Amino acid sequence: MNDPVNQKEPTMTQTPTESSNTAITDFGIDTTTMSTSEAVRDYVSRLRAGQLGSLPALLGLVALVIMFASLSDVFLSLNNLANLLAQGAGQTIIAMGIVFVLLVGEIDLSAGTASGVAGAVLAMHFAENGNLMGGMGSTVFVLFLAALGLGAVLAALLRIWAGTAISVLGIVIAASGMAANPWIEMLLALCTGTAIGCITGYLVSRIGMPSFVVTLALFLAWQGVILQFIGEGGVIGISSSPVLNQVANGNLSVLGSWVLCVVAVGGFAALTLGRHYSRLRRGLVTQPTSIVFFKAGAMAAIGIAATALLTINRAPNDNIVITGVPYVVPIVLGLLVIGTYVLNRTQYGRHIYAVGGNREAARRAGVNVTKIRASVFVVCSSVAALGAIVYSSKVGSVDPQAGGLNTLLFAVGAAVIGGASLFGGRGRVSDAVIGGSVLAVVANGLGLLSQPAAVVSIVTGLVLLLAATVDALSRRRAASAAR
Amino acid sequence: MSEPILHITGLNKTFGPVHVLHDIDLDVRAGEVTALVGDNGAGKSTLVKCIAGIHGADSGTVEFQGKPVHIRSPKDAAELGIEVVYQDLALADNLDIVQNMFLGRERGSSWLLDEASMEKAARETLASLSVRTVKSVRTPVSALSGGQRQTVAIAKSVLWDSKVVLLDEPTAALGVAQTRQVLDLVRRLAEQGLGVVLISHNMADVFEVADRIAVLYLGRMVAEVHTKDVTHGQVVELITAGRSGDIGLARPEHAVL
């Protein structure tokens, strides 16, 4: 009676084995594999219960593509489709970072202008051949270094060591005055974004200000910083650097495109099938084998078809040849894979969902809520800096409006249209890609129909409104279906 | 009678000017259900939160398995094997049962979680508690009924090889059949050799599952009695007036002034 552990064992073994077996078989769905029709019915019943995921956005995307294809001859031309991918990539990447912040139920209004600061630093480092002090003036340069240092210190206070390391790397690059090198410039942009995120994260999670206010203030402040860096009415061109220009405007070679296709399609199939069979072996919850094969097959078909189309010459005139998958595709796919892996497979990702679902429960379970809430802002700003590299490359220059205006709102819109919830706890990185595609198709399609900016804005707004309505209605259904 | 697994003496807690807990003594024994009862505001939840490390106690000693311990955070309590099932459940709606049960203590490396092992363990724990109402351990918690949520929360607390489980009003919001399931579960925890503390307002529940009853009255522990030694009426008097016959607070005329 003295040792509760010893006492526990006999009780467990006394339990007749058949009783525990019955209990296990009571998890009917878990052990017996579902037939295909059962799985389909299960999916339909989940849809009816309001768990829509990104289905509405996918349907909307298909509807928009069909609509624009019928209204414009150019829309489905290969050149336009490739162009569309590059147009949407910047805001899609920023939206991927926003998803992390939305997942914990916060908002980052400063992600757009933060990306603009990163872009401005990148452009200035390139234009001044690494002499940032000359470009900014010594006072501003010292303040810039101090801001990076502040990011490093705050990240250290939060025990986000990656944030500290990357911010310090930014100081080293900026202070050393290395000559212009496109890779160094991109790295410096990333470091700047990370340092900015550390500052935002500290203010929100340690000081405890509402993220809306903090990021609204920083949104304005970073806009001023960009203006200071670039100068009133100034533009810094970056298209003279082949690498910086190619990021959003270049294409993989035909061979490279097919290698990418094989790696992506093969990797997806290997992962899903491998996981499926290992779960089957261990007697865990699985989808029917037929559905898993269907998914892998469908992805393979889409991947191969897209690669085949993009490797055809799509040049608008006969003098040049444009073939291959645009570089933005592997960039976005790579970020999508990394983001999905982090959110679904790591402890960090699990804790992000937990904090978004029930902050108090996460705290009681021993999750470091302060650190998680701060870290999502670091992720968001860092990813936004990557987005800045892509959109700056697309435009070929950085001006004081970079990352301003609608950049942020489109990114948040993309995440929400894709199915991420503004209330936290629900969303995936792929939502940002789907939502980003919807917005890119709307902007591109209406542009081809030579609609004025007014119409583009109104339609984009209505699409967002529709997405939010679907989210709210499905949420209500889910709430009423719960009990 | 066995030595208590959790032995609290002279615990005090104040929130600013409000003295919430006065010199609380409480014993929890392995294999027994100790009911903690008291009126609203008597300090039941505060006491549980002090034991769980959510609030720090101002003074007092806590002995766990005969050794003095200091519980400063929920982590400390969890490491000792003290688990709390809160009134407000503390489950994340958007996660499924497995993810909730292992929240904060995921298996596998932090860069690659071992989902298969967690799923198996969750299923075995639910099975060992004869939980039969849950269709799949991959059901999101948002799709579960109140009773099922409570069941998951309790099962979560036993997953950790825990030695003491504190249940804060586990049946408060439940229907008749669901209350039945949860009370059975509480009994089963004690049979597995855990020390169980049950906070409840419902006298029928208390008399059904508890071995001993500890009564809090205005932040003081007025009685710790065996369930079989007292009647419903006596416990209600202890809760409302702090004494019943010879049990509880001393009568005013006997009080030392």
Automatic annotation (TrEMBL), chain B:
CDD domains tied to this protein: ABC_Carb_Monos_I
GO molecular function: ATP binding; ATP hydrolysis activity
UniProt xrefs under PROSITE patterns: ABC_TRANSPORTER_2
ABC transporter domain residues: 6-243
Transmembrane stretches, start-end: none
Pfam families referenced in this protein's UniProt entry, alphabetically: ABC_tran
Keyword S-adenosyl-L-methionine carried by entry: no
Keyword list, A-Z: ATP-binding, Nucleotide-binding
SMART domains cross-referenced by the UniProt entry: AAA
Signal peptide: none
Name of the protein in its database record: Sugar ABC transporter ATP-binding protein
Taxonomic source organism: Prauserella cavernicola
Organism classification: Bacteria, Bacillati, Actinomycetota, Actinomycetes, Pseudonocardiales
